Amino acid sequence: MNLPRKLDPASDEFNLFSSPFYLMAHADYQYHEDLDKVIAKLGLSRTAYRLMTVLLKRSPLNIGDLSMLALVKRSTASRALVGMRENGWVHMRDNDADNRLTDVALTDEGKVLVRNVMKSSSRQLQRAVAGLGDDEVNQLVQTLQKIVANLSRLPIE
User: Fold this and answer.
1) Do 102 and 63 contact (CB within 8 A), yes or no?
2) Residues 6 or more apart from 59 whose CB is under 8 A from it?
3) Does 17 have pLDDT greater than 70?
4) What top-level class would CATH report for the domain 17-153?
5) Model confidence over 79-123: pLDDT tens digits?
6) What is the 3-state secondary structure (H, E, C) of 29-86?
7) How far is CA 124 from the centre of its chain?
């Protein structure tokens, strides 16, 4: 595919404000700015929220896999998990197959909390896609999945 010159960062005609990755970052920033205010009232950080949403769908997970799926650095995840355990939202134990790994799962209290926060997340997503039809939303998801797959397998160097 030949990129339009206005989308090619190497081109003199490049328009940052039309760049797909600038627009994705801008949308992500605005989405989380409002959501962060809601979750902060419940004592959650964005990192804790990300970890908890992953754990709600896949649990238990070791810290490495959890941090990868939650899109946070392992050290950041480990620090957040300490506080989450102190708050009673997660429990942690040695992995049965490999005691070098620590498995993490949500407690019942953690599940209730993250489900409540996801209601706010749902309202924010509804706001974000207002005016788009089902086909447009599905196409957006499929396009983003292709981009993620491409970036996962094609290093630039």
Assistant:
1) yes
2) 104, 105, 106
3) yes
4) mainly alpha
5) 999 999 999 999 999 888 888 889 999 999 999 999 999 998 999
6) HHHHHHHHHHHHHCCCCHHHHHHHHHHHHCCCEEHHHHHHHHCCCHHHHHHHHHHHHH
7) 14
